[in-house]
UniProtKB/TrEMBL annotation:
<dbReference type="InterPro" id="IPR036812">
    <property type="entry name" value="NAD(P)_OxRdtase_dom_sf"/>
</dbReference>
<protein>
    <submittedName>
        <fullName>Oxidoreductase</fullName>
    </submittedName>
</protein>
<dbReference type="GO" id="GO:0005829">
    <property type="term" value="C:cytosol"/>
</dbReference>
<dbReference type="GO" id="GO:0016491">
    <property type="term" value="F:oxidoreductase activity"/>
</dbReference>
<dbReference type="Pfam" id="PF00248">
    <property type="entry name" value="Aldo_ket_red"/>
</dbReference>
<dbReference type="InterPro" id="IPR020471">
    <property type="entry name" value="AKR"/>
</dbReference>
<keyword id="KW-0560">Oxidoreductase</keyword>
<feature type="domain" description="NADP-dependent oxidoreductase">
    <location>
        <begin position="18"/>
        <end position="291"/>
    </location>
</feature>
<dbReference type="InterPro" id="IPR023210">
    <property type="entry name" value="NADP_OxRdtase_dom"/>
</dbReference>
<dbReference type="InterPro" id="IPR050523">
    <property type="entry name" value="AKR_Detox_Biosynth"/>
</dbReference>
């Protein structure tokens, strides 16, 4: 069923275009919320295993995804190790949190090696398939991306990507090493100013991986107070959920767009994966595009 959405190659690693984001697994409620209650460990493990059973072979995670009791990386390691040969685990570095969950200053270029090694340790890997450098308002990423390129040359990382970036950052990075993907906030009605960058990534053979593709401006808290009437109407027409319509719309933005919806619920997992099989007619896409542009 996952394969219905097609595949894309991250570097030299083929993945199904519907993946899974692990950010929500360590805790209940919004990610990174102060004093967030730990999530159900057994349920998280079931969700991860079921995702792989349904064909997901692209999982997004980070060492800074954790609650007071558990981390996303530890859950992935427990649920899926020894890892299937075709499973691609993407992680990210840059942001840092202390043991209580508070945010620290972003990593310096010199600190990135320790962050990569921590991801390796938690995941039980000898190399990382894909590491995204997530930016925190830097103008130049040359030193940071250069440090990751050195770790790639040392065999600790296979492919490199970027997160929370602009076109200028992508150009800077490509002067140093190949970029497999860009991971930015984007969704139907959320950040339409990203449309040109999404297209540009496709023209350059770079995957675009939107996070919050379902929630949009609601971000970690969910979709928000209401859903757009056109999304609701099209969902009714296709006997689908609004979340499925949002995922299907994102996938229609180009064959290089990969979605990574996250959930701790088995039913929502099945719904998200089923969205990859939705084929929206042109009139529906035009209606959604108009809603997106506002």
């Amino acid at each position: 069923m996952v394969a219905d959405a097609g595949t894309w190659t991250l570097g030299d690693l083929p993945v199904n275009r519907v993946g899974f984001g692990a950010m929500r697994l360590p805790q209940r409620g919004p990610a990174f919320a102060p004093q967030a209650a730990p999530g159900d460990r057994d349920q998280a493990i079931k969700v991860l295993r079921r995702a792989v059973e349904l064909g997901v072979n692209h999982i997004d995670t980070a060492a800074f995804y954790f609650s007071s009791l558990r981390s996303a990386n530890e859950l992935i390691n427990t649920a899926l190790s020894p890892y299937p040969d075709d499973l691609v685990i993407a992680t990210k570095v840059g942001p840092r949190r202390d043991t209580s969950g508070g945010w620290l200053s972003p990593a310096t270029p010199e600190q990135l090696r320790g962050d990569v090694q921590e991801n390796l340790r938690q995941l039980g890997r000898d190399h990382l398939d894909l590491v995204n450098l997530r930016l925190s308002r830097q103008d130049s990423i040359t030193d940071h991306f250069g440090a990751l390129a050195d770790l790639r040359d040392a065999g600790l990382i296979r492919h490199l990507g970027l997160s929370n970036v602009h076109a200028t950052h992508l150009a800077q990075a490509q002067e140093i090493a190949p970029v497999a993907c860009v991971q930015n906030a984007y969704g139907l009605g959320h950040r339409p100013e990203e449309d040109q960058f999404v297209r540009a990534c496709g023209e350059q053979g770079v995957a675009f991986v939107p996070f919050f593709a379902i929630a949009g401006a609601g971000r970690e808290a969910g979709v928000g107070d209401g859903e757009h009437e056109d999304v609701l109407a099209i969902a009714r027409t296709h006997q689908a959920t609004p979340a499925q319509i949002r995922l299907a719309w994102a996938l229609h933005r180009g064959p290089h767009v990969l979605v990574i919806p996250g959930t701790g619920d088995l039913g929502h997992l099945a719904d998200n994966i089923a969205a990859g099989a939705l084929r929206l007619p042109q009139e529906d896409l035009a209606r959604l595009d108009a809603a997106h542009s506002g």
